Amino acid sequence: MERLFGSDSILFKVLEKIADFVILNLLWAICCIPVVTIGASTTALYYVMLKMVRNEESHVAKMFFKAFKQNLKQGSILTIVFIAAGLLLYVDIKHIFTWQTDVKTLLLGIFVGIIVAVLVIILYTFPLLAQFENTIANTMKNAFMIGIANWPCTIVILVLNSIPIIVLVLVPYIFYAMLPFWILFGIAAISFVNSKMLKNIFEKYM
After folding, report:
1. pLDDT tens for residues 27-63?
2. For the range 13-22, what are the long-range contacts, defined as Cβ-Cβ under 8 Å and sequence gap of 24 or more?
3. What distance in Å separates the CA atoms of residue 67 and residue 11, rounded to the nearest whole number?
4. From the CB of residue 180, how many other CB atoms can be counted at a distance below 10 Å?
5. Whole-angstrom distance between the N-terminal and C-terminal Cα of the chain?
6. If we measure between CA atoms, which residue out of 165, 126, 160, 164 comes closest to residue 146?
7. Digit-coded pLDDT (tens) for 85-140
């Protein structure tokens, strides 16, 4: 019994990890409420997760708030940049759909390429911000280059991050049934899996 429930047992470590995920998931969600802080909150989440996959984490809440504070300015600026880019792309594409010319298909293809590029940048920007000190411009440039250079992992990470949206659109009843999972530790669990892959990618550039 002591072996099963002792502090060195596998069960204890699993429960401890789940508790960390719950704490991080809630902290991430709460810190995203002002919207403009989504970037800083996501950066803080990846900071802890990248530490966690290297078994370097200690007090997860303390580490989260430390990273959140350190990356608040850059993370907020990047959030505004990405929101503005998303709104601009949405307005442009919506406008193009009203056109009745042959150029319409070509322009839509170009915009799809731009959307893919923006998604790649978003996927890697906040983990990079959590791992490396750099300017906003260089972080975004490196995010795109690393994302393209490691495209198999990029596709996997994109699919993982899209799971909640895909489930909501295709089978909403399953999404709502799993809502407690998403609220408690779903985002943290996905970012942990992402960090497993990101750790190996980042080590090539360290």
Report:
1. 999 999 999 999 999 999 999 999 999 988 789 999 9
2. 18/185, 20/52, 20/57, 20/60, 20/188, 21/184, 21/185, 21/188, 21/189, 21/192, 22/184, 22/185, 22/188
3. 29
4. 10
5. 44
6. 126
7. 999 999 988 888 888 877 888 888 899 999 999 999 999 999 999 999 999 999 99
Q: Going by C-beta distance under 8 Å and a sequence separation of 6 or more, which residues neighbour residue 58? A: none
> What is the residue type of 54?
R
Structure tokens at 122: 């978003």
